Amino acid sequence: MGSAKTELQLELPLAGAAAAAPGGQFSLQFEEPALPFRLRRSSRDTVAFAVDEQGLKVRAPRGLSLSQIEQALRSRSKAISEKLAGRRSLGVTIQRWHDGVRFPYLGRMIALRLEADGHEAALRGDELLLPLPPEADDRQIRDRAHAWLQAEAKRVLGSRVDACARRLGLMPPPWQLSFAAGSWGAVDEECRLRLAWRLIHLSPAEIDGVVAKQLSRLPRQTGMSDLWTNVELPA
């Protein structure tokens, strides 16, 4: 008879292993918001992770302790955070733009409302008001919503680049919005950051993680601070 494969539900960050709860559930205390993940033991020699529609899935050797698994995941925390953020953003697929449609903005859901007598797009609470008549079609609404989101991305990302650079002891580098699909960001041949406008869907913490990763790719000879060897990039 073959042994059944089971997945345990755990949470990171860890502050020491907790006793197993009924049903094979673990709760591991963190000083930061917990990161839930499913753990499956296997015969492989290394820890591997994947992100699917249910979140983070981890495969680890049968003999590896929870603290060793934690250490392995922490060493790859930036890659994990980016994959989780990517999965959430890739899930933003709006089939039809219309009055009342909801989508994420800075990590929270907002609703789109058409306002025929409005003069400009405006965010009020959790509603984005667009100056369009009720008969506006899908393309008109999408174009107006994207224009507002892209303007917000330029404003928000600019402030996050400045803040992250200062936190790392660097001069803020030049940057621009990217409209390329499939990439959060890049550094071009002129040492400028290129950041995807769709980052505006993510939370500020997730945006900072992407910005910090791109800042770490800048060559030191561009006049950036020599503090690279002394700072720890935020996750």
Task: Give an overview of the whole structure.
By secondary structure, this protein is of the alpha/beta class. The chain has two domains: 7-75, no CATH class; 89-229, no CATH class. 28% of the residues lie in helices and 23% in strands. The protein has four helices and eleven strands. The chain has helices at residues 66-75, 77-90, 138-167, 204-215; strands spanning 7-12, 35-42, 48-52, 55-61, 102-105, 108-114, 122-124, 127-130, 175-178, 185-187, 193-196. Strands 1-2-4-3 form a four-stranded mixed beta sheet. A four-stranded mixed beta sheet has the order 5-6-8-7, covered by helices on one side. A three-stranded mixed beta sheet has the order 9-11-10, covered by helices on one side. A hairpin with a 2-residue loop joins strand 3 (48-52) and strand 4 (55-61). The longest helix is centred in the middle third of the chain and has 30 residues, at 138-167. The radius of gyration is 21 Å and the shape is globular. The relative contact order is 0.10.
Compact description:
This protein has helices at 66-75, 77-90, 138-167, 204-215, and strands spanning 7-12, 35-42, 48-52, 55-61, 102-105, 108-114, 122-124, 127-130, 175-178, 185-187, 193-196.
